Amino acid sequence: MPNTTPTDQALDQAIHAVPAEQFHGVDGRAVRPCTPAAVTHRHLRMLDVHPGANVMDIGIGSGLSAALLAQLAGPEGRVTAVEIDPALARRAEALYAEYGHQVAVVVGDGLLGYPQNGPYDRILVGTTPPAIPDAWLQQLKPGGTLLSGVRIADLPGAYAIARITVDDKHQPHQVEIHHGGYTPMVAPAPADTASRAVDTQQPDCSLTPLSDQDPSTIERLLAALRDASHTEPTPAQHADYFHLKNWLIATEPAGLLEATIDHGTGIGLGSLSPNGTAHVAIATDEHLIADHIESSALEVLHALIHQWREAGSPRTHELPARLTRDTDVWQARVSRS
Q1: What is the domain partition of the chain in residue ranges?
Q2: Residue 168 CB: number of other CB atoms within 10 A?
Q3: Burial 106-135 (b: 16+ CB within 10 A, else e)
Q4: What are the record keywords, sorted (predicted)?
Q5: 6-178 in CATH: which number?
Q6: Per-residue confidence at 26, pLDDT binned at 50, 70, 90?
Q7: Strand 329-334's sheet: what is its strand order?
Q8: What is the pTM of this model?
């Protein structure tokens, strides 16, 4: 019989008391898209909410997470849910009243948090902000924990989940980055730090390099990838792909890029040879795709995948993680060492 901790038992009881159907709905009242209940449950296990906790939930979504938090915090605790969309807030508030969940709903900008009900033992952010606002860390109690969607690179699909614990000065004390992600937050778009090429004939096809590149170079790389003559099965199993992807982001090899073509979306690298020929290769969850079977980019990508495997195919949460301050926000990043 598996060992369970008091936190595991409490979450199991909360899940039983708050079935997802109350919020995801079977009657047309569901919010789409919504985070799958299993993902919400996994993240609440990571957040480790105890009875009596004061918790803030940012991004109300279907309303499920705040209801579960209320069960975990219990009658002596308090849960504040902040949502920028008044319609979503009203829907969740009505469901809380209908099913007897003690959640205070606030309509407002989640980037600001809600200091009026703080400081908080835990903060759950069920969305991905452009960067982590320092305001969230300041609203945590010393030793408090934030769980949030984050961007770990200036690439379109570089999403992950950060678990951040603060010290007595509200500075990041412990940072873990996990595989996963939430939809982007409704927030002003940050300055576009990455160049991007889009195929005018196929707008769904695009290529974004991590570092600045000349627009003509990016377009040539995209054209070479779009017309790729070589495809092979990816060496990484489907479940491993996103860990490989995040390891490549952490490694940051020269020419790192993300691209979407007919075969799917993947991460890889590309460059121009001295004679101007474009060499590019990407890994998706199913294929390795390259401009040519003897592409220099494919050779480098094969070598990188071999390095990842030789290192034990590290999981995302095994990569060293950090937050870097940028004025009033924090950027989440992973590295190999």
Answers
A1: 6-178, 197-310
A2: 9
A3: bbeebbebbeebbebbbbbbbbbbbbbbbb
A4: Cytoplasm, Methyltransferase, S-adenosyl-L-methionine, Transferase
A5: 3.40.50.150
A6: low
A7: 132-133, 329-334, 321-326
A8: 0.91
